[in-house]
Amino acid sequence: MREIFAEVLTIGDEILYGQILDTNTKWISRELDDIGIKVRRKTAIGDKKSEITDALEESLKRSDIVLITGGLGPTKDDITKKTLAEYFNMELELNPSALEDVEDIFRRFGKALTDINRQQAYLPAGCRKIRNERGTAPGMWFEKDKKVIVSMPGVPFEMEAMMSKTILPRLKKHFPLPTIVHKVIKTIGIGESWLAEEISDWEDNLPEHLGLAYLPGKGQVRLRLTGVGEEREALETEMDKQIEEVLPSIKKYVFGFGDIQIEDAVGEILKSKELKIATAESCTGGFLAHRLTAVPGSSEYYWGSVISYHNDIKKDELGVSEKTLESYGAVSEETASEMAVGIRKKFKTDIGISTTGIAGPDGGTEEKPVGTVWMAISFGKNVVTRKIQLPGTRILNIEYTAIHALNFLRQTLDKQ
């Protein structure tokens, strides 16, 4: 069974000007992937006839399906329908069913149908009308040389309803579609290139119908294994075996699979060990607490936080000694350790974790440049510490510190 490819054309000057965010192509790509259609290319085009037809011609040379969004409104700058009518050499004619739909919408809102909106019921004579349940602009389905072209409104909630109810089911009937399965391995604490070296032999021996992609993020790399086949169950079984084969070589970096986040993984460990935790934050300003409490059910293990941004709070609320601050400074292993111990004792939890550092853009020195961060974990009589050096902007340094702290916590808990 051959693969079926699609392209998405998004029409509108407002998208090219950056005045609105194009969320349609992301949604469409995900939905097509779910039914076994691969998106080969996405293109944004202005409201100009020649650009629309040129892009359509190029897309049809490469792909089986072209999905077009935008430019179907009632105003003069909406030219998609007229352009497609000319491209397919079809006259615009009144579609009684489309007119009935438009009249019904105006009737529901208690308004009289205007002449300009009545024009939306005129469609290219040879297209198949697609009902728009949420707006006045119908969609249009064309076929040319065994390929399918679909034009939809650009308003997301109108397009999504049209796709879900009509277009996706029709595409599944029109094309014999393969099964596409994705499996994602979540790793942290190793860079993309180093990870690639660790699994190069395994990757080289993957069968042709399985592909691997590296998706780096903030402090993390997702490994996406994609399989294409005819039977989902057999394909998933094969992919699971491949994952079992590669896991031993990267186990210490893997924190989960699929959509799981690092804070979810940490939360599961805390729950399974029945441990309570509190946070003491300086440079992260509460962002670590935010990540931990973003997990539903985190109240089972998360007790609270002290944001000890000022040294007086470190002393008064966490018990960091004046001598420690004078001798080693706020950004130091010693201060981080006392913060972690202090928060654990204050909130009577099993674990205390702290962060203190220089987020930037100012405040760095030659000895402690911007991006210097110390973190500590206190549990029982033990304290473990870690120093990291980050190269980012202030916001990135804050975000990366929280991610590193969560991974530090995961690794520490795994050893217990």
UniProtKB/TrEMBL annotation:
Lineage: superkingdom: Bacteria
UniProt-listed Gene3D superfamilies: 3.30.70.2860, CinA-like, MoaB/Mog-like domain
Membrane-crossing residue ranges in chain numbering: none
Domain MoaB/Mog: 7-174
SUPFAM superfamilies named in the record: CinA-like, Molybdenum cofactor biosynthesis proteins
Cross-referenced Pfam families: CinA, CinA_KH, MoCF_biosynth
NCBIfam families recorded: cinA_nterm (TIGR00200), molyb_syn (TIGR00177), PncC_domain (TIGR00199), PRK00549.1 (NF001813)
HAMAP family: CinA_B
Cross-referenced PANTHER family: NICOTINAMIDE-NUCLEOTIDE AMIDOHYDROLASE PNCC (PTHR13939), NMN AMIDOHYDROLASE-LIKE PROTEIN YFAY (PTHR13939:SF0)
Family per similarity comment: Belongs to the CinA family.
Listed name of the protein: CinA-like protein
Source organism (scientific name): Reichenbachiella faecimaris
